[in-house]
Amino acid sequence: MGTAAGPVHAAGKARDVRTILVVEDEVLVRLMVAEQLRSADFHVVEAANADEALAVLRYTTDVALIVTDIRMPGSMDGLQLAKTVRSAFPQIRIVLTSGNLLKFSSVNHDAFVPKPYEPDKIIGLIRTLLN
């Protein structure tokens, strides 16, 4: 038996089965955010850069939201990733993050979260965006 949010797991809380893709090149930051989201009962997939994120999206159909850092090494940064995702997967919500306040108004995104992350705020924001 489950709820609108998903099946009920052993602790009796509804587990949100929608997948969140966390794209962050700093390993410790990525692990921290992913763990916080898992603790909030989200299913999380991790990627170290935009190329890995796009590979995940090619093979996973249930990604509902991407949390991506803006500044990342590789073939594209988080802004270009957001543009690519919005074009190819318009149903996916996009949360941009950065330790610097940058101008990126030309990028179609759903929210911006400054670093350092406040776990309750990012979890609340994601829940709001997915409902």
Give a summary of the structure in a few sentences:
This protein is α/β, with parallel strands linked by helices and 131 residues long. The protein is built from four helices and seven strands; from the N terminus they run βββαβαβαββα. It has one domain: Rossmann fold (3-Layer(aba) Sandwich), CATH 3.40.50.2300.
Structural descriptors:
35% helix; two-stranded antiparallel sheet; 4 helices; alpha/beta; disordered N terminus; Rossmann fold; five-stranded parallel β-sheet; 131 residues
Structure report:
With 131 residues, the protein is α/β, with parallel strands linked by helices. It contains 4 helices and 7 strands. The strands form 2 sheets. The protein has a 5-stranded parallel β-sheet with strand order 4-3-5-6-7, sandwiched between helices. A hairpin with a 2-residue loop joins strand 1 and strand 2. It is globular, with a radius of gyration of 14 Å. The N terminus is likely disordered.
CATH topology: Rossmann fold
State the CATH superfamily name.
Response regulator
Please tell me the overall pLDDT. Answer: 86
CATH class: Alpha Beta
Question: Approximately what portion of the residues adopt beta-strand conformation?
Answer: 25-35%
> What is the strand arrangement across the widest sheet?
4-3-5-6-7
Oligomer: single chain
Shape call: globular
Helix proportion of residues, in percent?
A: 25-40%
Please provide the ordered H/E string of secondary-structure elements: EEEHEHEHEEH
Q: What is the strand tally? A: 7
The CATH architecture can be given as 3-Layer(aba) Sandwich
Alpha-beta content class = alpha/beta
Major β-sheet, in short?
5 strands, parallel
The Cα radius of gyration reads 14 Å
